[in-house]
Amino acid sequence: MATVVRNILLGLAASLALLTIGAGEARAQSRIAVGGEAAGRLQDGDQQLDSGEYVDVWTFQGRAGQQVTINMSSTEIDAYLMLRGPGGLSEWNDDRASGETNARLTVRLPADGQYRISATTYEPGEDGQYLISVIEGAGPGSGQEGGGDLTLGQTGAGRLALGDDRLDAGEFTDRWTFRGTPGETYVVRLNSGAFDPYLIVRGADLQEDNDDEPGRGSVNSRVEFVMPADGEVRIYATSYQADETGEYALLLSRAGEEQQPAPVVASRATLTIGRTESGSLSSDAPTLRSGEYMQAYALNGRAGDRIELRLRSSGFDPYVFITGPGEFSAANDDDETGQDGTNSRLIVTLPADGEYQVVATSFEPGETGDFVLAVDRAGEEVAATETASTVAAFEDGVVREGMLSRGDATLDDGQFVDMYQFTGRRGERVAITAESAAFDTNLFLLGPGDVAENNDDGPDGTNSRIDFVLPADGAYDVAVTSFNGGETGAYRLTAGLSLGTPRQERVQGGPRIFAVMVGISDYGGYASNLAYTDEDAEKLAEDLRRDGLLNPASVVITNTDATVGAVKAAFARVAAEAGPDDIFLFFYSGHGSQGRGTVSAMEPDGKTETIVMADGEISDEEMGRMFASVNARMAMIVLDSCFSGGFARNVVTRPGVMGMFSSEEDLTSAVAGKFQAGGYLSHFLRTGLGGEANADGDDMITAGELTQYLRRRYAIDAADVRTQTADGQRSYQNLVVERGGVQVDDVVVRVARA
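The structure corresponding to this sequence follows.
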């Protein structure tokens, strides 16, 4: 009885608390998409309910009649969920089943709009990590693992879990069966925020598989199939990768019942066939019922007009659709030719005279960014391209003299425009400039792989420059126009391969890395031995030498040879060889230690960190003084050792110094046995500098690319590596990167193209 009374009181408190939370815009809210999963943490400093519980607020866009299931799970807290939204909705849940501390809410939403989830705890003062997910449909009941009969119009829900049947490749699977009308077309969708769904549909003469919905950014799966003659199919809910587990929803409907919601907003401008409109999706834009930001345009059409709509953006995944007289509608996510990445291309024949509405939006809710929307008569764009100035490939380099004049094609805001076309290859870095003494130039680059780049003013006033790495092979369109409408005059267009920005151009390739690489496995009794750490240094040197990056002045010191004196002497000798065009690297894999020090700005925890040599230790303060003598273009310290993050404040103290450390300053680091490496950072540094960090495929790895690569590999391969503090507090290993004054586009090394 006490529990029931408490739940009623908490429900009332929840309603009041949600009103309070929603009233203050300064209170932080996080977005979560339907079908998404996110991690959070309740802790001291969070906002609180009136009854004292910490609370995080998550928002999502819902639509009337949509059924959603919200799950909150944690091994550290007793989870409690509250939901409030349009139509006076107010729901809450403590335990999803008797004896459980995780929470679940399954709700059919009463109206279109934004809904607020409060993730909190059963008791005041509880803190800890949790996972929250929102899936479409009903979640599985307590103990339900999934499988069984599937009914049209209802949601099948389940969980992939240990003990389920497995496919040959190791994926867990649940089997569902459905009996339908032979010859009728059905659609089945598998949604999950916990794993990457994969659908398999089997029946008489029926074999359909799907990983991701065609052309969409979602990882959810969708299969459209015709019911076989015997009227029965088997539907297998499984995952893309082996051993993935979690809850899912299985939705079955007749084909054609999934409809693109039409916007209920006023059009912001009128489109004219043959012209281009630029715009932006932003957080203050109107939204579709499903939550995507949008901009709507009016288009006056005639019966029989065949038009082509193109929506391009580098900021989001474009989606374009058109509605009009006679319930006419058509939509496109990605260009079906496959030539234009995730950009949208839609060709339609208008059925009647009248006003049509064209909507520029995104595939996923919440996406923002600039876009270009073009409308042409179908077939005329090809002819226009042929009459434009078609020139050689970027690699040949070109200079063209041109003139913007009255009678040229125009953009929507009245700017005259000349078009050029180039061919390019993935990984080519190209530079395009437009210079004029007569007008303020503006440049656009459009092409495959979602390319929609724009520059108004380059580094020298009103002239324009685009420096960009091409993401795909194919044809690229360059538009030369003006910043203001109606401007005319002569200009010069230059296009060709680029070595990057002026700062990047100065970075030379070849054996420019001057490195001291230390790895200790055998400590000769001074400290306990380690596995693979000596090989970390040897393999790094071998890889850099093989790739033509390592200067012969570099040294490798391993095991009992790595004394304090030998390492300091090698450091001084190699650093003196490195000049202003070079990079100096100090790499270490081995033991790290931590001792009592003095509380200061450099040591706020009052502890000094060290790396352990074969006969002694080198402290973070000593290392800072050693790096102060380096006079190279860039100096890098890479430490794969316990407590290594404590070196960051002492070493990264001036421009041109970058530090990478295998763990935070109060945590140990683990041996990466799965890679036969002494540490995760050692292995990922090797593979990254070997070319895997070269994300855009050009001939250089930047500080930003290397940082992102290391963080991504840690997130994939080391996210669950347990570690601890010196006094036994448990945690997880996390990479520390401190770039200091090193900019994200500063070149670390020039490499052969991937």
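The longest helix spans residues 2-23.
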